[in-house]
Amino acid sequence: MGSIIEEARQSAKVNGLTKMEPLTDDEQAVRDIRKLLVDICRQNGGGHGGGAIGMAPLAVALWKKTMRYNPANANWFDRDRLVLSNGHSAILLYTMLHITGYPHMTMEELKLYANAKMPDPVTKKWKATICHGHPEIEIPGVEVTTGPLGQGIANAVGLAIASKQHAALFNKPRYEVTLSRIYCITGDGCLQEGVAQEALAIAGHLGLDNLIVCYDNNGVTCDGPLDWIVSDDTNAKLRAMGWNVIDVSNGDISIDPIVAALELAKSHKKQPTFINIKTTIGYGTSTAGTFKSHHGTYSDEDATLYADPDVVDTHTLSTRTKSYFKSAVEQGRQLEEKWNLLLSEYKKSCPQEAEALQSRLDGTLDGIEDFLLSMNIGDKGVSQATRQYNGAIFNQMMDRVPNLMAGGADLWNSNQMGDQGHRIFDRNHYNGRVIRYGIREHAMASISNGIAAYAAGVRMGALSNLQVIHVATHDSIGEGQNGPTHQPVELDSLYRAMPNLQYIRPATGEEVVGAWLLALQSRNQPTIISLARDPPTVATRGTNRECVLRGGYTILDVENPVVTLVSSGSELQFTFAAAKKLITEAGIPTRVVSMPCISVFEQQTISYQDEVLSSSPHIISVEAYVSSMWARFCTASIAMDSYGYSGSGIGNFTRFGFDSDSIFEKVQKHVKAKPTRRWQLLK
Amino acid sequence: MGSIIEEARQSAKVNGLTKMEPLTDDEQAVRDIRKLLVDICRQNGGGHGGGAIGMAPLAVALWKKTMRYNPANANWFDRDRLVLSNGHSAILLYTMLHITGYPHMTMEELKLYANAKMPDPVTKKWKATICHGHPEIEIPGVEVTTGPLGQGIANAVGLAIASKQHAALFNKPRYEVTLSRIYCITGDGCLQEGVAQEALAIAGHLGLDNLIVCYDNNGVTCDGPLDWIVSDDTNAKLRAMGWNVIDVSNGDISIDPIVAALELAKSHKKQPTFINIKTTIGYGTSTAGTFKSHHGTYSDEDATLYADPDVVDTHTLSTRTKSYFKSAVEQGRQLEEKWNLLLSEYKKSCPQEAEALQSRLDGTLDGIEDFLLSMNIGDKGVSQATRQYNGAIFNQMMDRVPNLMAGGADLWNSNQMGDQGHRIFDRNHYNGRVIRYGIREHAMASISNGIAAYAAGVRMGALSNLQVIHVATHDSIGEGQNGPTHQPVELDSLYRAMPNLQYIRPATGEEVVGAWLLALQSRNQPTIISLARDPPTVATRGTNRECVLRGGYTILDVENPVVTLVSSGSELQFTFAAAKKLITEAGIPTRVVSMPCISVFEQQTISYQDEVLSSSPHIISVEAYVSSMWARFCTASIAMDSYGYSGSGIGNFTRFGFDSDSIFEKVQKHVKAKPTRRWQLLK
């Protein structure tokens, strides 16, 4: 280990990055960036500096010599997108946004990186930082929120798919309105993650030649050398997945080979490119080449290593580097101006395409609400499974909403999504709208986020706030035949707890339409629509698409109610039937509430919530999931407390006591028992 | 497509599997198996028959010519293990267990496959099936529960790791007490999944030459041909991950090339082997070679295709096949008898090793409870983070418990697990006990299940019931620096809803010891211990390791309480301080309950639960997660309702209102407001 460090340090000295002789502009820039990174990591006793320091030449190659962007307008549409999949190196991204002149990314902001510990002692206000520990999409210049390793690669694949489709739909001879490429920086960590391997395989399969992944191959992880945990021939693996692979044997000092590799990659057709760049983590510092550099502090000696004799203060860039990057702002202005000119020519020559493009940029969903409100789906209460209704609704929407993209993980047939062969997006049809993701569910979710991020404008909020609609089928134990390994009984608890996610469990065709209304109206959040595999066997009356927009609503009301039953999804049918039986056979006045979306219900006024839920002494939820959120509203629950079973179809509901007779008996018994406990699971 | 089917049908006819001429014993067996599979899929209008029919020759090659097993004792320790990663083909496994003479797997049971729809109309009892939709570990002969695609490959890697370690520890010259190999069958679906790619990379890295993966390469998925979604050069990819690759170009008819490939694989050293076997899904049937064969019914013509003129009934095997497989029982008996003899010799020659081996077989955790109960960890209330205590406890346990295996995903240093270099399990040290999993978290979890399954005996229960202890660090928003992408606020909701999983969130060093006690005592379920990154800043008194075994307990009691505060993890310290302030400064009698494990608390007697939680009008939970389960017990919650923030260390607790002053104020205000709502989130 010692020799690696020494070699790196000597190499730094010999090769001029710490020497005092005249440096080229690029060398000076790399040196200044490294100095600034050391200063930032020292300001708060830590940060992920090692990777960032190692990647400084790559950063100069990308931001100075390769990428098209406009610092004055981070959201200029035809910019190249950069995804930092090794997101812990975020400080490199912030530093480059600062150096290239993004106005919000001031040196004061960089000083707040990993430094927003406690509120201001005087004002008592919390400091807001834009230099988050990992990149967050709401910061201009950050394309996607890359958190857990590996997902950034999938996000980048999503952006590349969106850009490819955009180019295929809108580029015309002499009017190349989409030139945007996607650059992704990854470390070894991302490449080990399954989600990345899934995404890399899809990208190769689709031949996305607008995607360039730069691998910061520093051979070191958090715990030690990479060869402790990886024996892959990474290049061979990428080639086997259909990628073009380029090696850069030394990415520590000169940016020239990196620039050349990037140029080569840009010219390569029909394959995405993987550039494998050998670097040294924490290059030149006292912990260079070792795991200690990954996340830690730098010594006083490290602080002086890259210091310029003319510059005494920390957190400063030399005048030369400042002026070297000054052109970025002007270049960016010109790029956008040129593009705007092209666009106005395009509007004249290709007015129809220009209108469609504008609709895409605006994210218009023309009249979709009226369409959904008036759609006749022939829901007669007992007829089709919610996933069948969904297929029919989806097909009509695909005809109607050109901006809708979709995809499935090898369950297109089984989910009855209809024949979409004519709409397939593949390497021969980049103008398609339906993506065959293969059996790669995790990548599907992360790629969808990338696609949604492509056309999104400025985004605000806690995390990404991207409008991705996940259609989940095989809901609960109703997925009988595949057995308990395939029957979620706990996932609703996760989804309902996830901030800013809408989890909707519609019961009928009416409510599936309502779910889509809600999902499409919610422009700044993802939605999961959870659909059942089997048709209902009992008629439910009173569900209503518009009421879904309130999260929960009464479908059966009575005077002086003793019990309110709250349910969702497939179980609503049995609940409804049980309520009627409770009224007629047991003389227990029973109301029924359909609650397809708890989080939306909780956003309603207190008086509305009370009107729906607080008029009876007993409020009992009926749902074939483990009961978690329901105790917020309910005095008892009929719920799962085990895994499911290899039954068939609707029979599992009876097996686990969700049929109307079982509900009837449990509720009757419970009411008679005059329970005193705060909440109870009814068995 | 038509031509593929026709080709397969013609090939079947030409090559003698449907012909009437004399067949070899193997051919007859393959034919009988295919006939039985068609019959089983017809009995209930469906099932996953296509893959199973295609793999019939592979099955005969494995069960007749390759694997070592004893039908009379499915748990004979030194058996070869088979993992069906494409678990939807479960009926093939059940059929082979039947044919080879596992006594429980009768023809009557096979008839219940996918046929346990509704209760018996007469007895009203539900039929129990042992032929679940996907393999389940509690059925003798099933090694692991392979559910979602890809995980079975990881389970197999875990079994291979365990077997390698076993051989390294216990095999002696002339006493090869462990010969067990791991066979895994996979389809293309598993290979697309990220978790499988993670696991394959680890297996190659570790050089597990006792692992043989057989790829049923039928080129078809649920939705259509495989080339719609996969362009990988699968063999090249596996080679790049360090695997030995063998091709079998036709696996449809003769078992000979498959047997030869398996023999080759067994002789190959220092690499795991991947056998790529070209097959035809639903071979010979009317839907052969197409996606329609994956999951569906078979026609009347299909039913006669493999029928023997002598055999009129469905669900029958020819006398010839029955007698061909009769030897399996006798062979198995001899294998186990020989092994038992070897073991008794071993006990004489290597008594110490034999004792250690026996302890391993029994799963003994010698005196670990007393050890943990008496362990001095120097917990003074304010000193170390729970993850630091955990590191110290873990190191002592590794010294003490030789049967403990462990591993980490590149956070060994960061989680302060101590220097375990001397215990590393790698290709040069198969006797090691600490696995470097790399940055492959999903595979780590699934491989751990495989390791746990290796030594487990007969297992009963709902799902796998394997004792795997997951130590999760970077708990909640206390993981400040990495920002909200790395701060779970919703995961506890998932874990707490997952049946048969223990989720423990200890607050102090005392409770970390208690968490290990609970985890080690719970022999039939997995546990997650969630640990904090930062040391407490406020002293908490009254936590107790033994009380953790009751899930929740009172740590501060008062007379005539008005408020009970319930908390866990890092927030307990602030809650405790807030309670003291509420008593002294606001005159509100306040109790404090520490609740490290909700599910265990719910298993206590009602009177104990009431004693801990029901003596005050206000019961308020304090936890920096989204509140889900708490409403079961509480009238209000101080909880997260958003994602976290890139703060630093303990500061995030203050930012989000979990410091003692904020708790004090929220509780005081709430009590004064005389709330009437059932449950409320305090802001």
What does this structure look like?
2 copies of one chain form a homodimer. With 683 residues, chain A is an alpha/beta fold. Chain A folds into 3 domains: 2-335, 3-Layer(aba) Sandwich (Rossmann fold), CATH 3.40.50.970; 368-530, Thiamin diphosphate (ThDP)-binding fold, Pyr/PP domains (Rossmann fold), CATH 3.40.50.970; 547-681, Rossmann fold, CATH 3.40.50.920. A 6-stranded mixed β-sheet of chain A has the order 12-14-13-15-16-17, sandwiched between helices. In chain A, helix 11 (256-267) links the parallel strand 4 and strand 5. In chain A, helix 2 (25-43) crosses helix 4, helix 7 packs across helix 17 and helix 13 packs across helix 14 (351-362). Chain A is elongated. Chains A and B meet through helix 8, helix 9, helix 10, helix 17 and helix 18 of A and helix 8, helix 9, helix 10, helix 18 and helix 19 of B.
Can you tell me the CATH architecture of the largest domain in chain A?
3-Layer(aba) Sandwich
- Major β-sheet strand ordering of chain A: 12-14-13-15-16-17
| Helix-and-strand structural type of chain A | alpha/beta
Give the CATH superfamily of the largest domain in chain A.
Thiamin diphosphate (ThDP)-binding fold, Pyr/PP domains
Question: Which topology of the largest domain in chain A does CATH recognise?
Answer: Rossmann fold
Low-confidence runs of at least 5 consecutive residues of chain A:
457-463
Count of DSSP helices of chain A?
Answer: 24
- CATH first level of the largest domain in chain A: which class? Alpha Beta
Cofactor (chains A, B): Mg(2+); thiamine diphosphate; Co(2+)
InterPro entries (chains A, B): THDP-binding (IPR029061), Transketo_C/PFOR_II (IPR009014), Transketolase-like_C_2 (IPR055152), Transketolase-like_Pyr-bd (IPR005475), Transketolase_BS (IPR020826), Transketolase_fam (IPR033247), Transketolase_N (IPR005474)
Domain Transketolase-like pyrimidine-binding (chains A, B): 384-538
Protein name (chains A, B): Transketolase-like pyrimidine-binding domain-containing protein
